[in-house]
Write a structure and sequence with these properties.
- This protein has helices spanning 3-13, 18-25, 29-37, 48-59, 63-73, 84-96, 105-115, 145-162, 178-181, 184-199, 214-228, 279-293, 311-320, 339-346, 351-372, 386-390, 411-427, 471-484, 492-513, and strands at 140-144, 168-173, 203-208, 233-237, 246-253, 257-264, 272-276, 297-298, 300-304, 325-328, 377-381, 431-435, 444-449, 453-458, 464-468.
- It contains 19 helices and 15 strands.
- The chain has three domains: 3-96, 434 Repressor (Amino-terminal Domain) (Orthogonal Bundle); 105-298, 2-Layer Sandwich (Endonuclease, Chain A), CATH 3.30.870; 303-522, 2-Layer Sandwich (Endonuclease, Chain A).
- The chain is flat and about 80 Å long.
- By secondary structure, it is an alpha+beta fold.
- Helices cover 46% and strands 15% of the residues.
- An eight-stranded mixed beta sheet has the order 1-7-6-5-2-3-4-8, sandwiched between helices.
- β13 and β14 form a beta hairpin.
Length: 527
């Protein structure tokens, strides 16, 4: 059983509502609802699990309740506990037990970014697709069941490819997606056609369904990663909860064709799928889609080398929002780089990139210092070894602008950056660093602000950044990052140990190459 299933069972046994449990353990009722629906999973060290366990143990007083509870959790212990405290401990142990498949959907999503490579596209010419005779296609046709839906979609995409004029496809489906994923041969054909559609210059607007559980939604996004990396997709979501009873699929190419279908719950086996090239029908379906997307919000913005858009504005907007922050990259974050080191690095960039970065960097750093007065900022870092820095192979974090450029620190620049980090640790109680010896998910960055949003992406070439502000996904990334942090990371002892490690590396740098310390560095500069 998953955590959500266990929690739901406990709440049903004890006849507990979301609001009652939330009130009893000092949490928000909407948060309990997300846990219960599986939209959010508890963080590794969440202290509310102990409070929950105590609550449920106290509420199981009737014999039928005790019996039902014991049947559910007895695999965790051969002996039924007699005291409330013992039962609470057993419930807590049971809640923490992983489900049979304990893979983390966030890990899987990030791994898919790391593993991505721009390979030669497998296009319509290299897969075994049915030959489409445009003259033989009926203006409107009804195709039944999963087989019919697949045939309709293949025909739809093939017609889009044959249209030499790029257009924006309108896609939405909250129907059961097994028709898309269960048959590997069909999935390969569909993927090949979609890549060819984008290669031909078409774009896609897609509405995701967030009332699927979080694992299913992240899994769906993972499947679209190769297409997202092109920067040609605009993803949206409908922010309000729907009951999922009546479901709909709309695939619309405004200049070419459309596929539509409806189903009840997950029943797609006998669904009627309507394929049409009728202009009036296509316009009507496009109007329906536009009415829906008007109620939606962007699920994420996607930035890469070819589609940088307003990334710097998005980054500045994200950083100006108030909230506790956790950042993880493979390199020192550029927001803590001192002015002298930044000026030295910028001269090695093209004038266009340097000028874009210079203004925003000053604005970002001011915002960073202002926010440190009231909110916690935590970095998860793995420092390079001394030889890497001295060889000029320590990479500068240019995630402030996704591009194909790699710039490396000089030893002096790295030394200056370390000195500034030490100053921050000694000056600001809200600034924390957790040093880790392992480069977990190397090549990715995660920059998350609690209840605000997350910037996540691949920093290795080809670079891509996803800016997300959907609340459930933000909460999932926030929990994920907290799992990476030990309980004691904010302690005085941990801070002292971190400072000692960074000072040791800085001293080694100075000792090998000669001191870099300048006269003004002997005093602590103001931010």
């Amino acid at each position: 059983m998953t955590f959500a299933e266990k929690l739901d069972l406990l709440m049903n046994i004890t006849n507990t509502s979301n609001s009652l449990l939330a009130h009893s353990i000092s949490l928000d009722a909407s948060f309990i609802s997300r846990l219960r629906r599986g939209v959010r999973a508890p963080a590794k060290n969440a202290n509310y699990i102990q409070a929950m366990s105590g609550y449920f143990a106290r509420c199981c007083q009737a014999e039928y309740q005790k019996t039902a509870l014991w049947k559910a959790i007895r695999t965790s212990s051969p002996i039924q506990p007699q005291s409330t405290d013992s039962m609470a401990s057993l419930i807590e142990q049971w809640l923490w037990e992983p489900a049979q498949d304990d893979s983390d959907p966030i890990d899987e999503l990030l791994e898919s970014m790391i593993d991505f490579r721009f390979k030669r596209m497998e296009t319509a010419a290299t897969v075994d697709l049915p030959i489409i005779d445009n003259q033989a296609i009926a203006e409107t046709e009804v195709l039944h069941g999963v087989k019919g839906k697949r045939a309709a979609v293949l025909t739809f995409l093939s017609l889009v490819i044959s249209n030499k004029h790029p257009q924006t496809l309108l896609l939405f489906s909250d129907e059961d997606l097994s028709w898309l994923t269960e048959d590997p041969e069909f999935t390969a054909k569909w993927s090949a056609l979609m890549l060819q559609v984008l290669k031909n210059g078409n774009r896609i607007k897609m509405i995701h369904t967030i009332n699927r559980n979080l694992d299913e939604m992240l899994s769906g996004i993972k499947g679209w990663i190769p297409l997202y990396m092109t920067g040609a997709i605009e993803p949206y979501y409908y922010p309000k909860t729907r009951d999922g009873l009546f479901r709909r699929t709309l695939f619309i190419a405004p200049d070419t064709a459309a596929v539509s279908s409806s189903s009840v719950h997950s029943g797609t086996q006998n669904t009627a799928n309507f394929f049409t090239t009728n202009r009036d029908a296509i316009r009507a379906l496009a109007s329906e889609y536009n009415n829906l997307i008007a109620l939606c919000r962007p699920l994420m913005r996607i930035f890469n080398h070819n589609h940088q858009g307003n990334y710097l504005e998005t980054l500045a907007e994200f950083e100006e929002e108030a909230g506790d922050t956790i950042a993880k990259t493979d390199m020192l974050t550029n927001i803590t780089i001192p002015e002298e080191a930044a000026a030295s690095i910028l001269v090695r960039l093209s004038d266009v990139i340097a000028n874009r970065l210079r203004t925003y960097q000053q604005r970002r750093i001011k915002t960073f210092y202002d926010k440190l007065a009231t909110h916690r900022f935590t970095e998860i870092l793995s420092l390079p070894d001394l030889e890497t820095i001295l060889a000029g192979k320590a990479v500068v974090n240019l995630s402030a602008i996704p591009n194909e450029t790699q710039v490396f620190y000089t030893p002096r620049e790295y030394y200056l950056h370390l000195q500034n980090i030490l100053r921050l640790l000694k000056t600001y109680d809200n600034y924390h660093i957790h040093l880790t010896g392992t480069k977990q998910l190397e090549g990715n960055m995660i920059y998350v602000k609690e209840d605000v949003g997350v910037l996540v992406g691949r920093t290795a070439v080809p670079a891509v950044i996803f800016a997300i502000n959907e609340s459930n996904m933000t909460a999932a990334f926030w929990d994920y990052m907290n799992v990476l942090l030990p309980k004691e990371y904010t302690s005085t002892k941990n801070r002292s140990h971190t400072i000692e490690e960074i000072e040791t590396l800085a001293a080694q740098l100075g000792g090998v190459t000669g001191t870099f310390r300048l006269p003004h560095e002997s005093r602590s500069p103001s931010p």
